[in-house]
Design the sequence.
């Protein structure tokens, strides 16, 4: 049985609340789970102690049994110090495209030429 430690969504529309659960990976996200391990309330401030609550003994038990945490849960466990930080692929979505880079280079070149011309003009007078 492939076990996962993952989030199961609760709460009403636009008011999310999650349970951290140990579940069989074949079960639905909000469906049957084996054990509730904690809660996550994303509406609370990031520095609030109530935002993420985990029963670390039971989480460690399930990790020892071979349960794999999902990405979000592994971030919680890294913050708690249970797991070591792993390298994640830094997606380059925020990086501008090639045309935008070319336009920025042209703009910088024009600005440099204008700066040189401005420096040469007062020197001749």
Sequence:
């Amino acid at each position: 049985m492939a076990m996962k430690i993952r989030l199961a969504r609760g709460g009403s529309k636009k008011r999310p609340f999650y349970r951290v659960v140990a579940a069989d990976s074949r079960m639905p996200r909000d469906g049957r789970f084996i054990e509730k391990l904690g809660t996550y309330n994303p509406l609370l401030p990031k520095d609030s102690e109530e935002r993420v609550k985990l029963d670390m003994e039971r989480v460690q038990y399930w990790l020892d049994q071979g349960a794999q945490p999902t990405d979000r849960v592994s971030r919680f466990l890294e913050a708690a110090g249970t797991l070591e930080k792993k390298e994640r692929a830094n997606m380059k979505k925020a990086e501008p495209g090639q045309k935008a880079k070319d336009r920025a280079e042209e703009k910088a070149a024009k600005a440099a030429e204008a700066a040189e011309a401005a420096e040469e003009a007062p020197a001749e007078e």
